[in-house]
Amino acid sequence: MLFLTHLLLGILVGLEAKDFFSGGNYLIFFALVLLGALLPDIDEGESKISKWTRLRIISFFSKHRGFFHSLGFVVLIVLVLRVFFGDYYAWGLFLGLSSHLLSDGLTKQGINFFYPFSELRLRGWIRTGSGGEMIFQLLIGGLIVWRLW
């Protein structure tokens, strides 16, 4: 999925999570959801997150939709955040990361949740950058507006 799709889905997840999680600063929680929604694409040198963080070098050591798009990465980074900042903020990052993985799982390219231990891929029907993705973006945008209304 493209940057805008991940960002919109992160916004929707962050808005919905507000009613289910408490225990800290909601703005930091929401920022972590958005970070998580974008972070797995750090393994793509041309992604916005790679350019913003100036960590484009990661793409030389990791293939796109490899480790950074796996449950292993999610568990590792969420546990580290939990140890240092607590459950509330770890949940925010977890929700964002999960939204990214699930939306990439809807694409024809798919993702391998269990990389590098399995070849099993979750694949969907949406072609990245296609009209199908645009419809998905409009749907998510509509849900955001409805949620804010």
Summed up, the domain count is 1
Largest sheet: none
Which sequence of SSEs, written as H and E, runs from N to C?
Answer: HHHHHHH
Please tally the helical runs, counting DSSP H or I stretches of 4 or more residues: 7
Number of strand elements: 0
N/C terminus separation: 27 Å
What does the overall shape look like? globular
The level of helicity is: 55-70%
The fraction of residues assigned to DSSP E strands is: under 5%
How would you classify the helix and strand content by structural class? mainly alpha
Q: Regions with pLDDT < 50 over 5+ consecutive residues?
A: none
CA gyration radius, whole angstroms: 15 Å
Mean pLDDT: 91
Model description:
The chain has 149 residues and is mostly helical. It is built from seven helices and no strands. α1 (3-17) crosses α6, α2 (26-38) packs parallel to α6 and α5 runs antiparallel to α6 (87-105). The protein starts with a helix and ends with a helix. The model has no long low-confidence stretch (mean pLDDT 91).
What does this entry show, briefly?
By secondary structure, this protein is mainly alpha-helical. The chain is built from seven helices and no strands.
Walk me through the topology.
Blueprint: H1 3-17, H2 26-38, H3 48-53, H4 58-61, H5 71-85, H6 87-105, H7 131-148
Helix pairs in contact: 1-2, 1-6, 1-7, 2-6, 5-6
